[in-house]
Specification:
Blueprint: H1 8-13, E1 27-33, H2 41-51, E2 56-59, H3 61-66, H4 68-76, E3 80-83, H5 96-110, E4 114-115, H6 124-130, E5 135-136, E6 141-142, H7 152-162, E7 168-172, H8 178-194, E8 198-199
Parallel strand pairs: 1-2, 1-7, 1-8, 2-3, 4-5, 6-7
């Protein structure tokens, strides 16, 4: 991934993808990639409930297959669902036909019109095919909560440093992230609230 905020060339590479929402509205869009998993998703949901926030979960289809009860928890609590492929595969490593088939397989479980590519990359042909059927959501800020080099305080600092009006903020619903999120997610939410940000989901 491009660290924290994507470079301009990456935004230009996928014209029409959504990297940031309105610059004129003091609102942010929390997103969580890679779940659902029983070790992380329930904590994230409980934290969002505590603050009365809805978010968007970009889910891996095979995780939904393995943990349908956790998937139902997310849906029943009113959060938005997005497609993150069936096996969390990177577009550059697969033929377009295989990548698109993997995405279609995921959507049999997810039934959504939102898509985010794992690792933030895909071939142009994959992008142009997918954008016919999905609203492609990228990010304005990756918190890097998955990084072994960062602490929970570092994750919060990334949120404080890079958030701006319309930011699409990416956390991860994963084993790599959960221990940092136990501290970083509530602290990030509280800071965003203190700054006057509203929390929205994609329509």
């Amino acid at each position: 991934m491009i660290i924290e905020q994507p470079a301009c060339f990456l935004r230009w590479l996928y014209p029409g993808a959504c990297w940031r929402m309105s610059r004129h509205e003091k609102a942010v869009y929390l997103t969580f990639d890679d779940g659902p998993i029983p070790e992380a998703t329930p904590f994230i949901l409980d934290t969002l409930d505590r603050y009365g926030i809805k978010a968007t979960f970009f889910m891996v289809g095979d995780n939904v297959r393995k943990h349908p009860e956790v998937y139902r928890m997310v849906v029943e609590r009113g959060h938005r669902i997005g497609n993150h492929t069936f096996n969390h595969i990177g577009g550059f490593r697969y033929l377009s036909e295989n990548y698109l088939a993997n995405t279609d397989k995921a959507n049999e479980f997810l039934n959504t019109n939102l898509f985010r590519p794992p690792h933030g990359w895909m071939r142009w042909r994959q992008y142009y095919k997918l954008k016919r059927h999905y609203r492609i959501i990228m990010w304005d800020l990756v918190t890097r909560d998955y990084s072994r080099r960062l602490t929970a305080d570092d994750v919060v600092e990334n949120v404080k440093r890079y958030t701006r009006n319309g930011s699409i903020i990416t956390f991860h619903d994963s084993l790599k992230s959960i221990e940092k999120l136990r501290t970083a997610l509530p602290q990030s939410i509280e800071w965003l609230q203190q700054q006057g940000y509203a929390f929205k989901v994609f329509e």
